[in-house]
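Form P-L/3: holo structure prediction, ligand pyridoxal-5'-phosphate.
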Amino acid sequence: MTILSGPSAHPIFSRCPAMREQLPHVPLGEFPTPVERHDRLARELGIGELWVKRDDLSGEIYGGNKVRKLEVLLADALRSGAHEVVTFGGAGSNHALATAIYGQRLGFRVDLFLTPQPTSDHVRRNLLLDHSFGAVMHHAEDAGAAMSDAAEYVALRTRETGVAPYVIPYGGTNALAVTGMMDAGLELVMQAFQGEISVPDVLFVAAGSLGTAVGIAIGLAAGECKAEVRAVRVTSAEVASRQVLDTLVEDARDLICAMDTSCVCTVDLAPRVRLVEDFYGAGYGTPMPEAEAAVARARALGLTLDGTYTGRAFAALMAEAATGALADKRVVFWDTFDSHDFTERLDGIEPAALPEMFARYFMGAQEPVAPALG
Ligand SMILES: *Cc1c(COP(=O)(O)O)cnc(C)c1O
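OUTPUT (holo model):
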């Protein structure tokens, strides 16, 4: 496997040329992702212009926002010489599944440490897919247990094999992964420059571990686009706080500036991202009427959203539009959800094939479950 440093589809390497030599990068997805204009919905909702950034189409096997992060993280894992990748998530985590899929594709053994979350069709589907893509699944009672179990496992494997597994944090978010989403922000600026989309005023995106919103904001800043990013929080206030956001911005900026001083070292990033806090509902992954209404509204237009992330972000967009504040704005909705249909692949995969602790997600009665981070 050769690590390509920046095919032309990645504008970060044109905007920040010194990063080309230094930023690990392995091509996994299909970029740039398309942008789409939705005039009828814009009229109905009272929005000047409404555009959708189709990151659901970011990968042939599996799309969504995690592909961009994994292009950097898994390249870093290759560079480290690791043969195994370890990561975390709630039982239905899209990040865990994306890591299983693309990790397997690059030849890694992938171990997932998964914590409880409310069960649903989506959670059951992702568990079956984790298994079918060859991931080794570990149940952990909570995030603390997941961390200590994983640390123990990593120490054991390092002793046994002499090579440390590569550990990816929750949500695939750290300063390095932010560069993958910074490329996404620059990609949007490039599409505006090429006339495929209007220069946006406001951008809505679902926020879990914040790497996506922060990366997009840094990319927009690097591309001199002044759009405001609304990061719609779908995880707890401790996980996605203003302080976590500001720290991630600073860490990412330090990392980027250490590679290339010409990009974002002097730009004031703080005012560009606003945390929208009213769409967490009763907890991560819980059903929420506003999100369900948003999912239904979008479906009528051919957009497949999910209730946990993109439905909440679209609900935030609809709510702000209803105040009239977006009437003369050019608005981008960033679709971060993979909408591949895995029905055929799932045919014949039995829940009994999963480790026993995951059986409860397939039983009729719902177990009491703690909130988790996706
Ligand atoms: C993970 C995820 C997000 C959130 O991304 P973060 O970088 O963790 O904030 C948004 N939407 C979907 C569909 C996701 O799977």
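COMMENT: The pocket of pyridoxal-5'-phosphate is lined by residues 64-65, 94-95, 171, 173, 206-213, 306, 309-310, 336-337, 374 (CB under 6 Å).
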